[in-house]
Design goal:
The chain is an alpha/beta fold and 236 residues long. The chain has two domains: 2-71, no CATH class; 83-233, Metalloproteases ("zincins"), catalytic domain (Zincin-like, 2-Layer Sandwich), CATH 3.30.2010.10. 38% of the residues lie in helices and 27% in strands. It has six helices and eleven strands. It has helices at residues 47-56, 58-71, 119-149, 185-197, 206-215, 219-229; strands at residues 2-10, 13-22, 29-33, 36-42, 83-86, 89-95, 102-105, 108-111, 155-159, 166-169, 173-177. It has a four-stranded mixed β-sheet with strand order 1-2-4-3, covered by helices on one side. Strands 5-6-8-7 form a four-stranded mixed β-sheet, with helices on one face. A hairpin with a 2-residue loop joins strand 5 (83-86) and strand 6. Helix 3 (119-149) crosses helix 4 and helix 4 crosses helix 5. 22% of the residues are buried.
């Protein structure tokens, strides 16, 4: 497989994109996500054919790139007053003296004033704390839901994926994105149940969705909400 960085103009917009060629690929495909535009192409596909595909789908590409740009969280300055999210709650970053390096106080996350001005140190401290909150929450929710589905308690691992909420392994392991801890609890529960249901059915068959529906009857609404609104909570 080979990979090349390219650029082109679609409309009045200069677009950078990546071309990945593979012997196994049979047709040209376009993917747009938070990493930008990626073109998958057969090994012998011509640059002319790729350019023609981009021109043909220019409106779609530009629209998707605009959507992802709108989803990007505002830049973190990691300073006093910066906003963060925990289970759907808006919290304010504050520098306060206390017995611990970082603490939750009602509507704020209090960090040792010794870190003030050290953006990298604050980021590492806060994200580490969020990961611990995530693991505690996920363990509690998995412990609640897995007996209701009649499956054994899985091994839980945190994921750092940027575009995937969770995954399930056939041998009883699930990975959950730690960034989920920023979302409201009802959306966290949907993802947890979704992955646990894969221990019943390792696909998205009607039987799988029946398992989900037993615990989350309104799973369709929650799935739609996490797709359309989930990015609003992802400040970190």
């Amino acid at each position: 497989m080979s990979q090349q960085l390219r650029s082109t103009t679609l409309g009045d917009t200069l677009i950078d994109y990546t071309v990945k060629r593979s012997r196994r690929r049979r047709r040209i495909s376009l993917t747009v996500d938070e990493q930008g535009l990626r073109v998958g192409a057969p090994l012998l596909a011509s640059d002319h054919a790729i350019a023609a595909m981009l021109r043909q789908h220019a409106s779609w590409v530009l629209g998707k790139l605009a959507e992802w740009q709108a989803r990007r969280p505002p830049p973190r300055h990691w300073c006093d007053g910066d906003t963060l999210m925990l289970q759907g709650r808006v919290l304010r970053l504050a520098f306060e003296t206390g017995p611990q390096y970082i603490q939750l106080h009602h509507d704020r996350i209090a960090v040792s004033p010794g870190l003030a001005g050290n953006a990298d140190g604050i980021r590492a401290t806060v994200t580490g704390w969020l990961r611990r909150q995530a693991m505690a929450c996920f363990y509690e929710r998995v412990a609640h839901f897995h007996p209701l589905l009649g499956v054994a308690a899985p091994l839980i691992r945190l994921s750092n994926a940027r575009t995937r909420w969770g995954s399930c392994h056939i041998y009883g392991r699930i990975r959950l994105n730690w960034r989920l801890i920023q979302l409201p609890q009802h959306l966290i529960d949907y993802v947890v149940v979704h992955e646990l249901a894969h221990l019943v059915e390792m696909n998205h068959s009607p039987r799988f969705w029946e398992a989900v529906a037993r615990l989350i009857p309104d799973y369709g609404a929650r799935r739609s909400e996490i797709r359309t609104e989930g990015h609003r909570y992802l400040l970190v």
